[in-house]
Known about the structure:
Radius of gyration of chain B: 25 Å
Oligomer: heterodimer
Amino acid sequence: MIGLDTAARPKVTTGEAVLRWALMLLALSVVLGPLLWELGTALKGPDESTAGFPGNLVPSEPTLDNFVAAFTQIPLGGYLLNSTVIAAMGVTTNLVLATLTGYALARIPFRGRAVYMAALLATAALPFEVILVSTLLVTRGLGLQDTLLGVVLPQAVAITSIFVMRQAFRAIPDELEEAATVDGAGPFRVFLRIMLPNVKGSLAVITVLGFLDSWDHFIWPLVVLSSPENYPVNVGIQYLSGTFSADQRVISAAAIVVILPPLLVYTVMQRHVFSGLAGGALKG
Amino acid sequence: MTTVLRRPTLGAPIRKAPAPAMRRHRWYVPLVFVGPVLVVQVIFLFTPLANTFVLAFTNVSTIGGGRFVGLANFTALAQDAAFWAAFGRTFVYMACTVPVIVALATGLALLVNTKLRGSSAVRTLLFSPMVMPLATVAVMFQFVFRSDGLANQLLIGLNVIAQPLPFLTSSTLALVSLMIVTIWKGCALSTLITLAALQNVSEELHEAAVLDGARWLRRTWSVTLPQIRGTTVLVAVLVAIGVLRVFTEPFVITGGGPGGATETIVLYLFTKGISPGTQAGYASAISLVLFAFVLVAAAITWALTRRGRA
């Protein structure tokens, strides 16, 4: 588990504090600058120029019209609905499949387990782009092209999630399982009643990661979907921003709305995001 | 990490306690747990992967048909100037972004590894780009780099330039602009990983260096950074693999333009093998070449981390 508490350091001199803050503010302005400019653009009325530094960065008469237009003039609502359906399905499949598989890999011996584990390790490094063309042919063959299910299934489970769950189940002491077995609990009862409650933290981690992944996916939905009414937010915004009629203010407002859900999850579940992303990289 | 290898001495067999968790279950129990994932992975992972190797030796189009053509795709690929241009461009992209991201991530991690009041809020904000969807970030930067976008507004406002720079319409600058987006987005996760490693650095060595009178720069360079070298290498390889796959930035921001100046390997693969009627066989050959390079990068990671742990 990775906690981001900083190392105990007895005293910070004033000089160090000033220097650190100066550099941190510089770094923050580079990270937040484009985002705030985008927000400023989204809040500007149609008469106000999006250009004109430095006098014109802050909208003089902030308006929410562009956010309304994002839902009325462009089909942001539909995109959001598609993304939500895809994320709900993707988070569920990832949660269920990774938990079952991780449990079997950690605690249930079966013929070919070592081979399967080796296959997972080998494909963990496989970039999806390598099998993009083949996966598209398979998905077309199954008649799933241009469906939300076709978006979800090829990326239904992340191999890193399987490894996270395997680690979590391996950490549970054997005595716990023994005691339950002696009491007459079968393997499924042990799994549901004894094991699952002990890995709640890891379940939260793969849920959060599953959502962030799903919201970020771009190339696969772009490839498998052909009707704009099926587009998730990423593909939809990119599609609209390329059209001639695109109003920069409305697209900016829509982009802000699209960035908000993952940002909200990140703010609330920061520890899980950190441990999932940093921990996964360090252990993987 | 140390592993103690103990060899059983002859004549004195070590009694191995039977692992209780490993007892046999009835045949259907494992099936319930791994059956579902096997179905999904056989259809959407193992079959497409195997099929890529088959398709690469055929002239199948994305709507079907085709026959075995041997190495024809690979010989054609070897003479495909557009592919080699995309290939070289992707490596230039990698050579420029990886060192910058690693250096920035290390610097930023050292910077925010402090207990200063308010620094945890700084960390939260600094790491936030890692959760933002890349495609939407790319749409945002498309506006930033327009002739009247933020980048030009800033540079003109600060009197650095008189005329707007053609960030997206000049062939050299367009690639640089895309790299800036990759760096802006990629620094967050790299910094997080580096910071996590920094917090495992032994305090004692650091204190000993302080007692020896070593100054901050010297302590950091000679004591702290060597201890996180393994992580630094890992970050570099992760970023490198990510950049080999770069697609979203050029697709969204420049569409590969101007005049193919920002076309990368995956973007080329996309134009060759996705639309109905295009060459799935040829695209599969490109995929295999991409896969070979990712494997090389993964092998390097493996070798380096193994050496680091030995």
